[in-house]
Specification:
Layout (H helix, E strand, L loop, with lengths): L2 H4 L4 H4 L4 E5 L5 E4 L6 E5 L4 E4 L5 H8 L3 H6 L3 H11 L6 E5 L14 E5 H11 L4
Length: 132
C-alpha cells in the first residue's frame, strides 16, 4: 500500500519509505522504500522512523520478525497474548489501541487497550501529535 494514499499525514515522517507493508497488533508500522527495498519501522506513539539494515520484505518477514528480541520489544508478544485473552482476536485492519494514548496520560496497561481500526488510529494519533 502506498503511504501517501493510506496514511498521508505520516508521509513527512516516513520520508522515502513509501510502501506500507504491515503493522503490529499494537499500531507500529512496517515500511519499505520502493526503490532500495530497505525496511523501516515507524513507531507511532512517539513518532520515530527507524531504518533497518534489511533490504527485502522476505528477509524482514523471515529473519527480523522471528528474532526473539524483535518479538519481545517490537511485537510485544507477551503483552499481546494478555490483551488478546482479554479482548479477543482482531479482524481485518484492526489493532489494539491504548486508551487514553500515552501522550495524553495513558499508561499502556493491558487493561487500557481497546480494539480499533488501524487507519483511524493513525489519523487520530498523528493529528494529536501534529504529524504532517
Amino acid at each position: 500500500m502506498n503511504v501517501g494514499q493510506t496514511m498521508n499525514r505520516w508521509s513527512v515522517v516516513a520520508n522515502d519509505f513509501d510502501e506500507l507493508v504491515g503493522y503490529t497488533h499494537l499500531g507500529d508500522i512496517f515500511l519499505c522504500n520502493s526503490k532500495t527495498k530497505q525496511m523501516a519501522i515507524l513507531f507511532t506513539i512517539s513518532p520515530e522512523l527507524v531504518p533497518l539494515a534489511i533490504n527485502s520484505v522476505l528477509e524482514f518477514e523471515c529473519s527480523f520478525l522471528s528474532n526473539p528480541e524483535a518479538k519481545r520489544t517490537i511485537l510485544q508478544e507477551e503483552k499481546l497474548r494478555k490483551i488478546e485473552a482479554r479482548l479477543g482476536g482482531l479482524g481485518d485492519e484492526e489493532i489494539y489501541i491504548p486508551v487514553p494514548f500515552p501522550f495524553m496520560g495513558g499508561d499502556r496497561s493491558v487493561e487500557s487497550y481497546k480494539i480499533g481500526n488501524v487507519f483511524t488510529y493513525l489519523e487520530l494519533v498523528g493529528g494529536l501529535q501534529d504529524v504532517g
